[in-house]
Amino acid sequence: MAKKNNIPNPPALGTIGEGTTTSSVRTPNIPAASADSALPTAQTAGTHRWTFLTNHAHVLILLSRDSTMVLRQVALQIGITERAVQRIIADLEEDGFIEREKVGRNNHYRILDHQPLRHPVESHRTIGDLIKLVSR
Fold first, then answer.
1. % residues pLDDT > 70 (the chain)
2. Which site among 29, 42, 50, 80 is 20 to 30 Å from 56 CA-CA?
3. What is the pTM of this model?
């Protein structure tokens, strides 16, 4: 004889309670990174509450490896939204850490690796030093 659980059935899709409805939310269909991708995605790298490097550093590191990487792929690799990557690119460009060159419909990014890191604790080092530190 099967044991009956006392967990109530969840409300039907689109309803919360009596007389209350919600609209269904569609999530974007984002393809997973290809199996032969050299870089792990945020999902395969594991999830942690925090990391030692900022998302700005992650963007710089990825663009130093592939200056033609599309922002959608950068976002997938880091585990942030494409819009967040766009804001980071704007920050880095505005403060003189990268230069953007339009080539046809694509952007190519050049890291200005001679620039010093921003915080006083590490300002004696450059962007290039950081990139070398995490290079494979």
1. 65
2. 29
3. 0.67
What span, in angstroms and rounded, lies between the C-alpha atoms of 92 and 131? Answer: 15
Q: Structure tokens of 136?
A: 């494979």
For residue range 59-70, list pLDDT tens digits in order.
999 999 999 999
Structure tokens at 43: 């999902």
Selecting from 3.40.190.10, 1.10.10.10, 3.50.50.60, 3.20.20.100, what CATH number does the domain 50-136 have? 1.10.10.10
Give the chain's largest Cα–Cα span: 73
Residue 43: CB partners within 8 Å, gap ≥ 6? Answer: 32, 79
Q: Which residue has the tokens 């694509």?
A: 106
How high is the pLDDT of residue 14? Answer: 46
Average pLDDT over residues 114-136: 94
For the chain, give the number of residues.
Answer: 136
